[in-house]
Amino acid sequence: MTKIIRSHKELEVYKRAFVAAMEIFQVSQKFPKEEVYSLTDQIRRSSCSVCSNLAEAWRKRRYEAAFISKLSDSEMEAAETQVWLDFAVECGYLDAKEAAKLYQVYDGILATLVGMIHNADSWVLPTKRPSPNK
């Protein structure tokens, strides 16, 4: 039996992305103050955007193209977050093992998003058909 999902917050991919974004918020608090408007801001923004685009995709699932577009935006933000993780490691702001764990989480999120995009028709709401009496 398939569980009915009523909110984006019930999506497993959203839950994983939210936890990852909160973890990035925590680790980025240790970044140097001079990075507050650069790397810190960018990695926090992109990680949070994964979640916000998932929420938007969920609300746009009446229209397959809009749903896929927002999932694609979420995919892009997840990949961007991985790039910022690489920069944080190279700059010496983040431990490589900690970054690798987060990078792997985002690999899983990306895989799920791609799967949702490829199977969008199973996520999109059915359209109402006109009544035959009209």
Structural notes for this entry:
This protein is mostly helical and 134 residues long. The chain has one domain: de novo design (two linked rop proteins), CATH 1.20.1440. It contains 4 helices and no strands. Helix 1 runs antiparallel to helix 2. The protein is elongated.
**CATH homologous superfamily descriptor:** 23S rRNA-intervening sequence
CATH T-level fold name: de novo design (two linked rop proteins)
Averaging pLDDT over every residue, what do you get? 94
Radius of gyration over all CA atoms, rounded:
18 Å
Uncertain residue ranges: none
Total helical segments: 4
Spatial shape: elongated
Domain module tally:
1
DSSP summary, beta strand count: 0
Structural class: mainly alpha
Gap from first CA to last CA: 36 Å
Gross CATH architecture: Up-down Bundle
Helix content: 55-70%
Name the helix and strand elements from N-terminus to C-terminus, one letter apiece: HHHH
**Approximately how much beta-strand content do the residues carry?**
under 5%
Look at the structure and give the CATH class.
Mainly Alpha
Please summarize the sheet with the most strands: none
